[in-house]
Amino acid sequence: EAILDVATLRKDFPILDQVVNDEALVYLDNAATTQKPQAVLDVLNHYYHHDNANVHRGVHTLAERATQAYEAAREKVRRFIQAKETAEVIFTRGTTTSLNWIAQSYGEAFIKEGDEIVISYMEHHANVIPWQQLAKRKKAVLKYIPLTEEGFLDMQAAQAMITDKTAIVAIAHVSNVLGVINPVAELAKLAHAHQAIMVVDGAQSVPHMKIDVQALDCDFYAFSGHKMCGPTGIGVLYGKRKYLEQMEPVEFGGEMIDFVHLYDSTWKELPWKFEAGTPNIAGAIALGAAIDYLETIGMEKIHQYEQSLVAYVLPQLQAIEGLTIYGPKDPKEHTGVIAFNFEGIHPHDVATALDMEGVAVRAGHHCAQPLIQYLDVQATARASFYFYNTKAEADRFIAALHATKEFFQNGTI
Ligand SMILES: Cc1ncc(COP(=O)(O)O)c(CN[C@@H](CS)C(=O)O)c1O
User: Fold this and answer.
1) What pLDDT, in 10s, does the model give residues 98-149?
2) Which of 30, 124, 199 to mutate to test the pocket of ligand 1 (most atoms within 8 A of CB)?
3) d(Cα 102, Cα 192) in Å, to the nearest integer?
């Protein structure tokens, strides 16, 4: 905790201070969604109490205030991910919408029969199915980069697979199962060497580490507000202007138009071209508040602290007999997303038993069925940490695992 004063930070999250099944809650499902600090909830409340109005259209004072707050949130996102300009920051519903829009709109404009789309076996369905659909629509070819034994991307295979036939490389920055950090800057270089574009699924990276999309030189980057202390229903699609300008909107209606003729229309300039209809104004403003909150703590410190938790808990997990952990063995190469299985105990039973001890983890395929099949397992359990979790909570998690093992293997708890 020396890196962060977690005890003080936890006071910002009243939800964490509750009893579940007669035990103090230990919330370890942060890869699914994170909790929201009071500051974010206050901003949501204040907006609806004082500033609520529709944006970009009204000329009255509240509309001006709402528009100013909405566009200020966009600038906060720009600065947070180091995008060159706010025109490259588009508000969406979340990572899934962002990736779908890239596949649909960029795909429509640039992909032709025979083009190859390279993803990997560790991708989340949001970064698999849009590409499957695009490949089917355009008779393009979908390819999967294999993984090494430990769950890293096989970069030698990637080098061989990414060729002049490759049009798109789409990879997660961090896996929501393996907790592995993929070399997206290196993959971007490889893609660009073959005139392909690099799409990054940043759902599990943006909340946990400093992201600089210009340094990565990726062409698109997608992430969700609810995984980084923001509300659900708001996310971001970052794209280089040179591509966004050549892409048609996916949704049409108010806000995104310049002129509506009877049988055709022209579009507003970026980013509003991609923001049809009344946007999630409060969600965007609250995402801005979440960014303020995270930046006050510092992304470097958040990453350091989370890695210190992993360095504490991973070796203890590795020491539990009959427990298989997926992803990198070295804690320095494993983020706070830890998938595991107990020999002979179904992960759903493990998660239920942990819940009986107040410990919240996820069980299932984590929207990554190709990976679960690749790992040759039915499902896994998964604990995912955030900066507000403590070593004491890690101890509760370990103790609950031992109790679970005891119960299922010897019938006692
Ligand atoms: C790598 C990755 N990519 C895309 C998504 C989708 O994010 P949305 O905000 O649902 O659109 C997620 C969200 N993964 C959650 C829900 S399945 C999990 O429990 O792992 C993700 O982890």
Assistant:
1) 999 999 999 999 999 999 999 999 999 999 999 999 999 999 999 999 999 9
2) 124
3) 17
DSSP letters, 90-128, are EEES-HHHHHHHIIIIIHHHH--TT-EEEEETT--GGGT
Return the half-sphere exposure (C-beta side, CA atoms, 13 A cut-off) of residue 200: 30
pTM for the model stands at 0.98
CATH topology of domain 41-295: Aspartate Aminotransferase; domain 2 (3.40.640)
Does the domain spanning 6-30+299-410 belong to CATH 3.90.1150.10? yes
Q: In what order do the strands lie in the sheet with 116-120?
A: 89-92, 235-239, 220-224, 197-201, 166-172, 116-120, 141-145
pLDDT digits 0-9 by tens, 373-382: 999 999 999 9
Q: Which of 95, 128, 201, 237 to mutate to test the pocket of ligand 1 (most atoms within 8 A of CB)?
A: 95
Radius of gyration of the chain, Cα coordinates, nearest whole angstrom: 22
Distance of CA 49 from the midpoint of ligand 1 (Å): 31
